[in-house]
Amino acid sequence: MSVRTEFSDLIRAMARRDWGTVDQLLDGLEASGWRGGNQVIGAAFAIAVNDRFGAAHSPTDVARFVAETRTQFPGAESLPTLEMEGLVRAALGEVGLVDNLSPETALQMQIVFLGKLLQDRDPTETQLEEFIADVERTAAEYM
After folding, report:
1. I need a labelling partner for 31 at 20 to 30 A (CA). Which of 7, 46, 64, 108 fits?
2. What is the domain extent for residue 129?
3. Which DSSP symbol is given to 75?
4. pLDDT tens, N- to C-terminus, the chain (143 residues)
5. What domain count does the chain have?
């Protein structure tokens, strides 16, 4: 199954720091109801978090990352800190930490985190396309 290209375009725009395109795409996705968004953005978030932290991480590492994200992205300030930490830790294997998190809030958090993770990684075009191909393959398994 193929994933919708709007999500791949959103990831590309975020990685390229093309915030005008990001805003346009987000508006369009909001209007369309984000159909398939949880799978694609969730896959991108999980892959990027695991690339960032790997096997060696602590709750303190996650808390530091969340604090950095909250200061760098104005939209993140309104998101609940403990739930943000729980979402990252859940992507790293502690899945029970997001049992009470609504899908809408989780998606919002994942988008903010994805922006931070992509900026920190600063991928080349080749690395970005490899990442997107991995995301699309992973998301297709859940669609």
Report:
1. 46
2. 5-140
3. G
4. 345 578 899 999 999 999 899 999 988 888 888 877 888 899 999 999 999 998 788 999 999 999 999 998 877 888 889 999 999 999 998 888 888 888 888 888 999 999 999 999 999 999 999 999 999 999 888 76
5. 1
